[in-house]
Amino acid sequence: MVCAQLHHSFIATATTATSATVPARCRCRCRGRGRARTPAPRLGAFFSSLVSSSRDRGEMGDDGPSKGSEVVVDDRHSLDRKIDAIRKAGPQKLQVIADFDATLTRYWINGRRGQSSHGLLQQGNPEYNAKRQQLYEYYHPLEFSPTIPIDEKTKLMEEWWEKTHALLVEGGLSYDDIKKSVASANIAFREGVVELFEFLEERGIPILIFSAGLADIIEEVLRQKLHRSFRNIRIVSNRMEFDNDGRLISFKGRTIHSLNKNEHALDMAAPLHERLGDANGPVDDSVSVKMRTNVLLLGDLIGDLGMSDGLNYETRISLGFLNDNIDGSIDSYRKAFDVVYLNDFPMWGVLELATQLLPAEAT
Length: 363
What we know:
- By secondary structure, this protein is of the alpha/beta class.
- It has helices at residues 8-12, 46-51, 54-57, 76-89, 126-143, 150-170, 175-183, 193-202, 215-226, 265-268, 286-290, 326-336, 348-357; strands at 24-25, 36-37, 71-72, 94-99, 108-109, 112-113, 207-214, 233-242, 248-252, 294-299, 315-322, 339-342.
- It has 2 domains: 53-109 and 189-362, Rossmann fold; 113-183, DNA polymerase, domain 1.
- The chain is built from 13 helices and 12 strands.
- 41% of the residues are buried.
C-alpha cells in the first residue's frame, strides 16, 4: 500500500506548494525499499478540503486565483459525476494518460526553470548542439503561430523533428551521451509521483506517457531519478535504435511530434518500454489499452487534452498543471480541465483523486 503517514508540515503549507518538506524514512509498506522518502500526507479529505469551495476560489477578487488556492475546480458537480461513473465502472476500465515535461516533472527547481527531456540532451560534438538550437529558434515560433493553417503547421513540425533526428544521427550521438546528459540535467519529478506510480501499479492501471520528445531519454530520467521500473508504464514517444557500440543509427517507427501526440500514436510508435519494462512485459498492449474507456488525463498545456484523441472514451477526468502565467491563463485552463493545479503543485492531489477512483475494495 502507498504510504499514508501524516506529514503535518505539508498540510500546513499546502497552499504555498513551494515549501520544502523534510525527508523521512517510511516505516509502512510503501515499497520505500530502504530509500529516504518524503512521506505522503494523510490523504483522507485532503483533496476535498482543497477544492471544497473551488468555484469561489476560481472567481476570486483583485488578488486573483494565483495568490489563493493551489487547486481550482470550475464545476464540482460535473467532477463528482465523473468520479462516480469511473468508480462504478471499476479499475479494469481505467487508464492514465500523462504528458511528461512540466506535468510529471517540476517546472521550477531551486529557482531555476527545469529542463525538458529534449532540451537537456547534449551531444558529444557541440557543433551539433548549436545546429539543433538554430532549428529550435526557427521552428518554435512557427509551432505557436496563430496564422499558419494546421495542415501546413503539421508539415513544418514533421520537417523540424526529422531534421533534428538527422542531426542526432549525423553527430554520432551515443547512449553514453544520453546518460551523461541526464546525470547533469536540471530535471526532477514532482513530489508524490513515485507514490502515484506505485499505487496505480499495485492496481494494474496502465500509465501511458505521451511525449513528442525521445523515449530513450525519458526512460533514462526514470531510471536515474526514480531508481526503479514500473510494469504498468508505457512510453509513447520517438525511440532510437543503437548499434552494438551504443551509437545512434536510426529511429524506430513513424515520427511523433507536437501535433500528433495522441492515442493514434499507439499505432505509429515502435515497440514500447524495451529497456525499462519488466521481463514479463507491460500490463497491456495497445489493443487492450484501447478497451479501457475511462481516462485520467494529466497535462500542462490545453493542447494535451488531445492525447486522448483516437480513444472512444466514456468518461474522462482531465487534470491541468498551470505552472506559469497563471493570471493570464487561469480562465481558459479552468474551462478546459476538470481540475487545475497551480504553481508547480505536487502530485498528492492526483494521488488522492486516484484513491477516490480506485477504492480499497477494488484491490
